[in-house]
Design goal:
By secondary structure, the chain is an all-beta fold. The protein is 0% helix and 48% strand. The termini are far apart.
């Protein structure tokens, strides 16, 4: 059986930027792709409060949407795309949602 290689995308997103769109190249069904996000505020590191949770949501090309939980470790948001998130060919749109409380 071939070895599955892990691919990690490192991204920095700023809370005060409206056009914080990053393109991540994936393939349909790709489930080996991890994303690690550093959050900044006006270009300065943002300390994620301990009571904050993170989710990523994906709007797939067929119009359906999914939500998946992220982890927060070392002040970074981390997640791995699921094969369901990338189950439809075409361009999908995703964003990170931070919720407090």
């Amino acid at each position: 059986m071939p070895e599955i290689l892990e691919h990690i995308d490192y991204i920095t997103l700023d809370l005060n930027t409206n056009n914080a769109y990053i393109v991540i190249g994936t393939k349909e069904g790709d489930s080996a792709r991890k994303v690690i996000i550093s959050i900044t505020e006006n270009g300065q590191p943002y300390e994620i409060p301990s009571d904050v949770t993170a989710t990523y949501r994906v709007r797939k090309p067929d119009g359906t949407a999914i939500w998946n939980n992220c982890t927060i470790e070392d002040n970074k948001v981390k997640f791995q795309f699921t094969s369901i998130a990338l189950s439809v060919p075409g361009r999908a749109y995703a964003d990170i949602v931070l919720s407090q409380g």
